[in-house]
Amino acid sequence: MRAVASVLHLDLDAFFAAVEQRDKPSLRGKPVVVGGVGGRGVVSTASYEARRYGVRSAMSTREARARCPHAAFLSGRFHAYRSTSDQVMGVLRSISPLVEPLSLDEAFVDLAAADLAEHPGLADLSLPSVTAFAEELRTRITEVTGGLTASVGIGTSKFIAKVASDLDKPDGLVVVAPGTEQDLLRPMSVTVIPGVGPATAERLRRAGVHTVAELELLSEDELVRLLGKASGHWLFNLARAQDDRPVVAEREAKSVSVEGTYDHDLTDRSLMEHLLTRQAGDVARRLRKSGLSGRTVTIKVRMHDFTTLSRSSTLASPTDTAATIGRLARGLLADLDTSGGVRLLGVGVSGLADWVQEDLFGETAEEDEELPEVEVPHHSRRAWAPGMDVEHTEMGRGWVWGSGRGVVTVRFETAATPAGPVRSYAEDDPELSPWIPPVTDEPE
């Protein structure tokens, strides 16, 4: 823990939904839910208007529709989220060389590593200075992103900064003065501590521990006996606001994976092998695009009863070939009993490296493996997914309002226009096409 409050945590508010509201004027101020739109979809992000009806991240889309049937349910546009995130991370990196992204919408910034001479607003690391600087930063983020807001927390450690950013959402700023950390934490639930999920919270509850103050009363030995050495030591320190983790500028990818959830349980083994092979090809392309390879191939299988299984196999040397990844994935599937039905399949590669070992005794060229011709079942991602960007030769750009029974309905508007008109077309109308964002050659 530092002597000054110099760790900043920034969290963009309801990020995916906020980007959709920014780019779709007709949805501003209205409930928006981003995630899987099918019957088995899961909510990724809900706007604050939707949260008032009890819609939350990780909730099933079915339940979200029941709670807020009048919300706009959108499948999401990763390109828009990525470009907006890049803008925000660029602003943060202009402040300090030590920026640690946690996801597209949040990051830690080490203000102690900033060049104070280049940032007049950050005269020193006193509380008035960092507070004024954070206010300027939030204004700058709103300007750069075209209207998005961010909640910011500043403290003497990553833990305290993260807790602080959650205290006044949305569009808030909380700076925790050095020496006041434990007073802040003690009334809070133990679930405020990273890593305390439902299972750990239940163990602590059985021990009579509900708040951080009650957790603080337990000795380290008691916590180790209750939760194990690693977790016990971790909770003992954080209950006392002791966190010396540095802000790390680069967070290397630990794995590359692809998965799909299907509207109907899969029971045909040939079909599952076909899907795994296709996913293996997607993973291999992503590995090669990033200049990576990996040694460990893992499959993820969620059964009809929501039981999730995973199996892994590790190679002697890293690979980035679809044939190898696919062969291992299908072999792992062969060891599982899937007769009851499968609702989700996924393939991932971990143990990443930036090199590939040449096969000295076999073929290095990737070979396509023959698989039975099968029909892939309807997937929750549709050809005209709700929310996707489209373009019409006469009407210009818009987004998919909905589709079905051979018809696609489009609202024509963008972030730079007022709320626009709604028109319906045949799904195969040659004048309507997906809008693809232009490719920009930006330095890595």
TrEMBL record:
Belongs to the DNA polymerase type-Y family. Poorly processive, error-prone DNA polymerase involved in untargeted mutagenesis. Copies undamaged DNA at stalled replication forks, which arise in vivo from mismatched or misaligned primer ends. These misaligned primers can be extended by PolIV. Exhibits no 3'-5' exonuclease (proofreading) activity. May be involved in translesional synthesis, in conjunction with the beta clamp from PolIII. This is DNA polymerase IV. Monomer. Residues 7-197 form the UmuC domain. It holds the Pfam family IMS. SUPFAM superfamilies: DNA/RNA polymerases, Lesion bypass DNA polymerase (Y-family), little finger domain. It comes from Nocardioides hankookensis.
